[in-house]
Amino acid sequence: MNAQSEELALEVRNLAVSIKTPHGVVHPVKGVDLTVHKGEIVGIVGESGCGKSTTIKGLLRLLPANSTVTADKAQLAGYGDLLATPVRRMREVRGAKIGFVAQNPFGSLNPIYKIERQFYELQKAHKTKVSRKESREIALRMLDGVGIVNPARVLDGYAHQLSGGMAQRVVIALATTLSPQLLIADEPTTGLDATVQAQILDLISGFVHQEGRSMVLVTHDLGVIAQYCQRVVVMYDGQVVEHGSVMDVMVEPQHPYTQRLIASVPKPGEKLDVSR
Amino acid sequence: MSLVEIEDVHKVFPARQRGGEPVHALKGVSLHVNEGETLAVIGESGSGKSTLGRVALRLIDVDSGAVRIDGKDLGAMDANTLRRQRADMQLVFQEPFESLNPRMAIGAIVAEPLQIHQPQLGTTEIRRQVLSTLEHVGLPQSFADRLPGELSGGQQQRVGIARAIISRPRFVVLDEPTSSLDLSIRAQILALLAELQREYSMAYLFVSHDMHTVEWVSDRIAVMYLGEIVETKPTRELFDAPEHPYTQTLLSARLSPDPREPHAYKAFAGHKTVRDAVENQEPA
Ligand SMILES: Nc1ncnc2c1ncn2[C@@H]1O[C@H](COP(=O)(O)OP(=O)(O)OP(=O)(O)O)[C@@H](O)[C@H]1O
Ligand SMILES: Nc1ncnc2c1ncn2[C@@H]1O[C@H](COP(=O)(O)OP(=O)(O)OP(=O)(O)O)[C@@H](O)[C@H]1O
Ligand SMILES: [Mg+2]
Ligand SMILES: [Mg+2]
């Protein structure tokens, strides 16, 4: 936690999302606050369907046109208010200022471009000049960093030739290529075994803590929260029900949902009880 | 005789272009799954687990080796016989959204196996079973009319599970079926799967990266590494005495959910990758 400070990286107040559907308007996010300091990793946990992905996509302006996002504040340090930015200008923010790893990695890879081209397009869009050759070298280095054993083969292939965990790692490599100050990752390691997961989280932790960057990490894995995050936000039904240091929240959870969550961690050696 | 038998299967994905390398995804894999049993498959990302799952259901062809269900060779079946055989075999895909038709309502997606294999049930009965299966996986009945894009990742995953279990197949490949679920819903789904298994003697091939889940649900565990199964053991035995260096590395990399117990695991103890760590260490 070398570079963790009181300096804010992201400050979100009262973020709400509503979506118009054929069955009426739904409100998946109802006033979420999120504070991220420089040099820290903030974890978000919560029940499946409680609004974690919608919160993030709302902030990044990635929700479809039938949705409305409001907030009192959504301030990205060194930039300005994210919600005051026109949607078309968000392309410049995503990638360069905020790296995003979506929950479905295949959804953020272009199925008809080789992986190499996706690294090239990303760099070309944000830098004045990058040659194909430079771009390929950078991509090889990024893929090697996330534990891809044969990066050249991956670069010369297409998304559908990747395993689930390989696709996740390609997306993580893409999201960090431009060294964004903030990384937002939605369940980035679900397809990785514990060894590769540790390699990648060690890498990202180094990136965050040593260089004063920040990360928001959505995960269902309480081991990841306990071992890699400094603070945690617990969501339930579109709202934040508890937040604080990982030590406080995980050791002495206050909200009934958090208590239930922590109580359902399987104990080593336990067999599934189907008697219910 | 085991319900499912896989014998010495090889699968190579050919190189797509000149100069490219083919990928030898399965290098002589053998395993069996008994009725009413859960065989877990764990292993490195890219080691061939999903390929194995697709091979076990003959969704892709093998280069050599055999896959048998009930002693019958899936590779020797004609299209019609295979189609009928499919009534007994289902897959929960690793990538939920990629496996759901974005233009089909959830209700229609879940109904599909029944419509194909048990059309005699009739629309009313099929609808009734769809709604009750949705409820069993913790989704409100109103979701039947929604599209996949209107669901969260974990909700999509549960639609995939509902589709796989609705026809009570004898064999299900579950590829990371609970990776997007929080612990309390995960426990609920695993209990449901266990209940169905007990009632209908279903056989599961359960691919997972989550060692807690694997320990919880499986009878035996097969460990894959670089396209091969490097050890297969009853669950308790594998946890107590892992033999292959990869398995040992894997077990030592588990993260404690208690922040007061910082994890001692340093990624691969000075080795750059897990491969180096495994290769520079002799089997115990
Ligand atoms: N387009 C939409 N129309 C209607 N409801 C929606 C739509 N998109 C999302 N929802 C609902 O909003 C809620 C929040 O979804 P979200 O994807 O944010 O959940 P999540 O916390 O990320 O869950 P998971 O852990 O399962 O990924 C869910 O109940 C979902 O069904
Ligand atoms: N259609 C394909 N064409 C070419 N290569 C493929 C194809 N499908 C899989 N592969 C390759 O086969 C290998 C095994 O992939 P598979 O998806 O079976 O791995 P996995 O063990 O399921 O990994 P993960 O845990 O990351 O999901 C990988 O190297 C992958 O790139
Ligand atoms: Mg989500
Ligand atoms: Mg897989």
Automatic annotation (TrEMBL), chain A:
Gene Ontology CC entries for this record: plasma membrane
Residues covered by the ABC transporter domain: 10-262
Record flagged with keyword Nucleotide-binding: yes
SUPFAM superfamilies reported for this sequence: P-loop containing nucleoside triphosphate hydrolases
Keyword Transport: yes
Superkingdom field: Bacteria
Subcellular location: Cell membrane
Coiled coil: none
InterPro entries xrefs: AAA+_ATPase (IPR003593), ABC_Ni/Peptide_Import (IPR050388), ABC_transporter-like_ATP-bd (IPR003439), ABC_transporter-like_CS (IPR017871), P-loop_NTPase (IPR027417)
Main location: membrane
Family under the similarity heading: Belongs to the ABC transporter superfamily.
Name under which the protein is recorded: Dipeptide/oligopeptide/nickel ABC transporter ATP-binding protein
Protein source organism: Micromonospora sonchi
Phylogenetic placement of the source organism: Bacteria, Bacillati, Actinomycetota, Actinomycetes, Micromonosporales
TrEMBL record, chain B:
PROSITE patterns according to UniProt: ABC_TRANSPORTER_1, ABC_TRANSPORTER_2
Start and end residues of each ABC transporter domain: 4-251
Annotated signal sequence range: none
Single GO MF descriptor: ATP binding
Keywords (A to Z) from UniProt: ATP-binding, Nucleotide-binding, Transport
Matching InterPro entries: AAA+_ATPase (IPR003593), ABC_transp_ATP-bind (IPR050319), ABC_transporter-like_ATP-bd (IPR003439), ABC_transporter-like_CS (IPR017871), Oligopep_ABC_C (IPR013563), P-loop_NTPase (IPR027417)
Protein name listed in UniProt: ABC transporter domain-containing protein
Species this chain originates from: Micromonospora sonchi
Record lineage: Bacteria, Bacillati, Actinomycetota, Actinomycetes, Micromonosporales
